[in-house]
Amino acid sequence: MLQNTFCHLPGIGFRTERQLWDRGVHSWDVFQAESTPLPFGKARTVALRKDLGHSLAHLRENDARFFAERLPSDLHWRLFRDFRHSTAYLDIETTGLGLPDDHITTIALYDGKSLRTYIHGDNLHRFAADIARFELIVTYNGKCFDLPFIRSFLEVEMDQAHIDLRYVLRSLGYSGGLKGCERQIGIGRDTLEGVDGYFAVLLWQDYVERNDRKALQTLLAYNAMDTVNLEKLMVLAYNLKLRDTPFPELRIDEDPVTPDIPFEPDIDTINRIRHRFFGYA
What we know:
Strand order of the largest sheet: 3-2-1-4-5
Radius of gyration: 22 Å
Number of strands: 5
């Protein structure tokens, strides 16, 4: 989809892009062809073709940030197909204590194949080197929460291109938080059904107070599920967004395969915490 996009070029907005598409200018190759008549003056046409040459160079260099800086944020979803091979799905959990005492408890990072987890007091320091390998980050509500928190607490720049699915899905009519969006498209949570961000805070608290490894395993299972499900939501959102373009052939047809999550949520721990804090199991 990126190579059918022109909104990153100077002075070209969505309306002009639509006009180009309606004229049959569907790709960068067509735009660059000398035989293609463009609705601009000669000098501007030359300048735009030069800018598009820079775009091709940055795409070859796998530079997603170049395009993210030039596209409106509501069009960042168009980066996904071209940079899927360098995409990280990301979710964090925190203590929920509020500043200045709040800190990250766990992070889950998924690249579509491998799942990595990071734990406060154990291997959280490894996150910075691992995330630096990716060009594109996908989160749910990461613009307001995950990324600012990581920048502040871990002092990691997190300057990659970023797609926040909260806003993409909302533009498609899906709302109600990450779990709400999952339910609307038929993603279930099995044992973790009903466990949410506040419950994740309680799981960490239980782990710290009791040194209960089952609580930590349950928290990691929850954090990992939040993260791997982002790929399914991203593919769904990308395909639905394509419906408003002339490029149905760019649809991603294969369904993401949910990886084996190496953490087993413990139902007894979940019920014990529910009874302690909510009065039911």
